[in-house]
């Protein structure tokens, strides 16, 4: 805690008047005027000494309710001030610093606190967008009884809270082959009739030749290997396109509060869609993997909703236009799990990578939501956006199920058309 003492406007005026009286008294030879001036100058300094030597000690405590909210909701902040000394305090002014991006601070004025008295004040933050936020520290100003001196005591404690992305309830639509978000096993797990009825896959260089399944190889005309050693499990991998060049904001920009952020920024729509699909998969017992940062290629795994939403609350567009650092991870996810990609602006290299990742003979579903980012405003940096219809056609020809998402389309509608019946793009909704 830091402490700073300063004169009020009243004290400054009294000091100026006292000094003027002293000078005039000296010039005019008026002793009484000099004495009056000295007294006027002495009063503010006496008040400062009194405040400095006083044993009034103030403590503060902050509480948040709740510590986690969904985007578009507010947090209530409770500030408790306690006078730890037996002496009463003067009037108090509290100022609590609001999270970065919000204008101003929260201010309160309290009457004097009696000895050992505690008092609580509360305020609500504005409805906030997705992210991690911090409130505090709080500062307290105390006055002496004559309002000559104020003491500012700045505390250092802060409080953090989380605004997680909006998670929409998705319809219970199932994609082709019904193993996307259902209770069925993954595409490479042990067969439904037991370990002897093993699933197979194409032979890859380095595979153990003793595991070649000759009957399947003869049937398809190429080498196939058994996978009975792999445990039965259901997986869904989400691919979130977080490249800054793949998304754009509306012409009005985006602030920390206000309208639905998914209508202001295509990346916010992508994050919310990713969270919604992943949570639906978790409810159906799926293991979740997430690929979301080409600058740090890593497959993140989540088993609980809170872990996932905490991570996505802090997701930000990354300053890169490259997708290839994720190539090996995307190929692995396409082989071993259902792959759901939420894509912004795509380029030929990215489309080629995704098409090749699907490959031939893959039984795992691969689904893609392609966001028509032009609906959110001008293309980032003035570069023209690639036609999402063309990108969707390329992916469909490679075995993906792809849908184009227009501006203001809900996640639930997009998912229903993607996982259910629709290979045609979504219509714009006003």
UniProtKB/TrEMBL annotation:
Name the Pfam families on file: DUF58
Give the residue ranges for region: Disordered.
Answer: 171-199, 237-259
| The entry's keywords | Membrane, Transmembrane, Transmembrane helix
The residue ranges crossing the membrane are 34-52
Ranges of compositional bias, category Polar residues: 237-247
The record's InterPro entries line, in alphabetical order, gives: DUF58
Where in this chain does the record put each DUF58 domain? 200-298
Would you say which domain of life the source belongs to? Bacteria
Q: What is this protein called?
A: Conserved repeat domain-containing protein
Task: Supply the source organism for this entry.
Answer: Jatrophihabitans endophyticus
């Amino acid at each position: 805690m830091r402490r700073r003492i300063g004169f009020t406007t009243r004290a400054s005026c009294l000091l100026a008047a006292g000094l003027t009286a002293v000078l005039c008294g000296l010039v005019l030879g008026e002793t009484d005027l000099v004495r009056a001036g000295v007294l006027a100058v002495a009063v503010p300094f006496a008040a400062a000494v009194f405040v400095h030597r006083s044993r009034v000690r103030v403590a503060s405590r902050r509480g948040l309710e709740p510590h986690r909210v969904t985007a578009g909701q507010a947090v209530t902040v409770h500030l408790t001030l306690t006078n730890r000394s037996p002496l009463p305090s003067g009037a108090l002014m509290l100022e609590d610093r609001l999270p970065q991006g919000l204008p101003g601070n929260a201010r309160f004025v309290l009457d004097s606190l009696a000895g050992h008295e505690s008092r609580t004040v509360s305020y609500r933050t504005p409805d906030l967008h997705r992210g991690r936020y911090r409130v505090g520290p709080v500062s307290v100003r105390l006055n002496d009884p004559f309002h000559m001196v104020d003491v500012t005591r700045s505390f250092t404690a802060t409080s953090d809270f989380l605004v997680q992305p909006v998670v929409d309830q998705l319809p219970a639509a199932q994609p082709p082959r019904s193993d996307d978000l259902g209770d069925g096993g993954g595409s490479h797990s042990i067969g439904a009739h037991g370990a002897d009825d093993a699933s197979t896959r194409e032979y890859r260089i380095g595979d153990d030749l003793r595991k070649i399944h000759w009957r399947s190889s003869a049937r398809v005309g190429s080498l196939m290997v058994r996978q009975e050693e792999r445990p039965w499990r259901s997986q869904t991998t989400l691919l979130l396109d977080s490249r800054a060049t793949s998304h754009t904001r509306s012409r009005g920009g985006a602030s920390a509060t206000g309208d639905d952020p998914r209508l202001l920024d295509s990346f916010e729509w992508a994050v919310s869609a990713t969270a919604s699909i992943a949570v639906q998969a978790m409810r159906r017992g799926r293991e979740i993997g997430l690929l979301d940062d080409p600058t740090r290629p890593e497959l993140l795994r989540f088993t609980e909703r809170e872990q996932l939403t905490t991570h996505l609350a802090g997701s930000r567009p990354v300053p890169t236009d490259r997708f290839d650092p994720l190539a090996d991870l995307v190929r692995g996810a396409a082989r071993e799990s259902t792959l759901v990609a939420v894509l912004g602006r795509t380029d030929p290299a990215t489309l080629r990578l995704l098409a090749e990742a699907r490959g031939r003979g893959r039984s795992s579903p691969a689904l893609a939501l392609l966001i028509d980012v032009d609906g959110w405003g001008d293309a980032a940096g003035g570069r023209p956006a690639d036609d999402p219809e063309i990108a969707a056609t390329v992916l469909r020809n490679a075995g993906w199920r792809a849908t184009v998402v227009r501006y203001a389309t809900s996640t639930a509608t997009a998912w229903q058309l993607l996982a259910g019946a629709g290979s045609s793009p979504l219509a714009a909704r006003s």
